[in-house]
Design brief:
two-stranded antiparallel ribbon, globular, disordered C terminus, binds calcium ion, signal, C-type_lectin-like/link_sf
């Protein structure tokens, strides 16, 4: 076999052996998978309030639609906020994070269905909140349909923004985190 073909064959063998390499493998312990939720393993920031468990994704900033899908992949929901007390708890928790983690966070609130009629995507309920930044929601430029925790002047309150913006996000679940173990394929 000529050297070039040998090199191609070798490359193919290496690819087949390591093509899955360096992907985090979520090995969720099988027990109680129907009553617990898989939590992602890349340094999750987790807290609880009432019967909810929250996962704050501070390592990846993505648009609202992808944030919604990411939470679904974790068997969770993009956060809905049931009360101002819940908002205040989440805000205080975010304030306790490091400076680098004090990001803008997507919620599931949006008026994509009907302009000006804000609902939580996770449960379909209307958004009733007294925790808006002054003058918000303003549908600025006619382009803002998704609600997020907005960090302005060192204060977190709600704002509507363009859904295509990339932000951190918060997933929620009423299920408890499963036992998980971290493993690498190579
Ligand atoms: Ca809007
Ligand atoms: Ca706005």
């Amino acid at each position: 076999m000529i050297p070039s073909k040998l090199a191609t064959l070798f490359s193919l063998i290496v690819y087949l052996q390591y093509s899955h390499c360096c992907e985090i493998n979520l090995d969720v312990v099988e027990e109680n998978t129907d009553v617990c939720v898989k939590t992602p393993l890349n340094i999750p920031v987790i807290t609880t309030y009432g019967n909810k468990t929250y996962y704050l994704e501070v390592n990846n900033q993505i648009n609202w639609h992808n944030a919604y899908l990411a939470c679904k992949q974790y068997n969770m929901e993009l956060i809905n906020i049931d009360s101002d007390a819940e908002f205040d708890y989440i805000r205080e928790f975010i304030n306790s994070l490091t400076t680098a983690q004090k990001l803008n966070f997507w919620t599931s609130g949006n008026d994509l269905g009907t302009e000006g009629e804000y609902k939580w995507m996770s449960n379909g309920r209307r958004v009733f909140s007294n925790r808006w930044h002054k003058g918000q929601p303003d549908n600025y430029g006619g382009l803002e349909d998704c609600i997020h925790f907005w960090h302005v002047s060192n204060v977190y309150l709600l704002n509507d923004s363009t859904c295509a913006s990339n932000m951190a996000f918060i997933c929620q679940s009423i299920k408890k985190p499963c036992s998980v173990q971290r493993s690498w394929q190579c």
